[in-house]
Task: inverse folding
């Protein structure tokens, strides 16, 4: 029995609807294990900040504070382990995230299964003219789509036929697999802490990420939302839906805000948001001061 052998996903008894999300035509993300949850983040942070906070509301505020101020190490106290199956072209992008631990199916030890990603017409997106790395929403349409899909299938079938014939003629698996297509499915176990997982998700949920890896990032997000709802909420607020401005961009924004006397209006709107969230007067004062500092570039004492 090799240490590289991975449970067959189709036959594996562990594959239940509750812990598995299907991705693309034959892939999946299966949650294998989680160590910790929101309370682990809070527990670790309290080592720094004392034992003052206790209620869920205060836990939420503490997690929000940590995320906002990039006090990231408490998020490293939570670990997720997934079993994932994806085409090799998705795995190539995924593996660039070096802060995870990975154990992949071995094409040297195992015969590669004849399982390939087959595009549907809606997958045949056109090249973006604005961004050399991206596709557009527009697809090639018929009759091209059917012809391309047919060609994909024929090429994939032919390459697997050759692969199997090479194996039959005694060529080593490590050599025979070299001619298989990037659409071939692979599998791995992937373990990562929540801080680094959020970094992965920020990059791979972004609109610029390739749709085929974004599908997996979305599946993983579902598990994070279930297991760590408060951390997820803070991630959505400060990272996923936040934006970063360059020095030149913020200079323009600051001058527009100043010239048009917009600061008071912005503060008033933010104040209303914060009141609705039920923050205390002192927390509101801190939030408003931080916002003013960001938008004016002034350092204020509070
Ligand atoms: C839309 C998109 C397009 C991309 N295009 C390309 C491309 O064309 N070509 C290409 O090669 N890659 C490309 N990448 C991959 C990209 O350059 C990163 O390698 C990948 O996103 C992993 O990011 P990371 O290094 O921040 O993450 P991780 O490897 O998970 O690392 C997390 C963080 O840990 C730190 N870290 C980890 N390892 C080191 C180290 N050795 N030294 C210093 N700090 C470290 C860094 O702070 C890093 O941000 C692309 C990624 C995206 C999202």
Result:
């Amino acid at each position: 029995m090799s240490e590289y052998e991975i449970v067959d996903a189709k036959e594996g008894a562990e594959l239940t609807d509750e812990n598995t999300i299907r991705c693309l035509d034959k892939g999946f993300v299966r949650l294998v294990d989680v160590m910790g949850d929101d309370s682990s983040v809070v527990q670790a942070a309290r080592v720094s900040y004392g034992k003052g906070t206790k209620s869920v509301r205060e836990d939420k505020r503490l997690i929000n504070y940590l995320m906002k101020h990039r006090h990231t190490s408490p998020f490293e106290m939570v670990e997720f382990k997934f079993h994932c199956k994806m085409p090799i072209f998705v795995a190539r992008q995924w593996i660039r995230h070096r802060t995870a631990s990975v154990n992949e199916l071995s094409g040297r030890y195992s015969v590669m299964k004849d399982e390939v990603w087959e595009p549907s017409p809606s997958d045949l997106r056109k090249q973006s003219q604005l961004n050399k790395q991206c596709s557009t929403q527009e697809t090639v349409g018929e009759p091209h789509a059917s012809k391309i899909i047919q060609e994909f299938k024929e090429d994939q079938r032919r390459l697997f036929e050759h692969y199997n014939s090479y194996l039959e003629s005694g060529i080593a698996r490590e050599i025979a697999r070299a001619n298989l297509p990037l659409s071939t499915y692979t599998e791995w176990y992937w373990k990562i802490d929540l801080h680094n997982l959020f970094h992965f998700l920020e990059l791979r949920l972004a609109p610029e990420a390739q749709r085929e890896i974004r599908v997996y990032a979305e599946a993983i997000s579902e598990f994070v939302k279930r297991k760590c709802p408060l951390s997820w909420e803070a991630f959505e607020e400060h990272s996923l839906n936040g934006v970063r401005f360059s020095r030149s961009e913020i200079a323009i924004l600051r001058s527009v805000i100043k010239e048009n006397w917009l600061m008071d209006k912005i503060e008033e709107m933010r104040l209303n948001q914060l009141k609705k969230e039920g923050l205390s007067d002192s927390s509101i004062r801190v939030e408003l001061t931080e916002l003013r500092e960001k938008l004016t570039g002034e350092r204020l004492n509070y």
Observations:
- The first strand starts at residue 20 and ends at 23.
- The pocket of flavin-adenine dinucleotide is lined by residues 96-99, 133, 196, 199, 203, 208-209 (CB under 6 Å).
- The chain is about 50% helix and 15% strand.
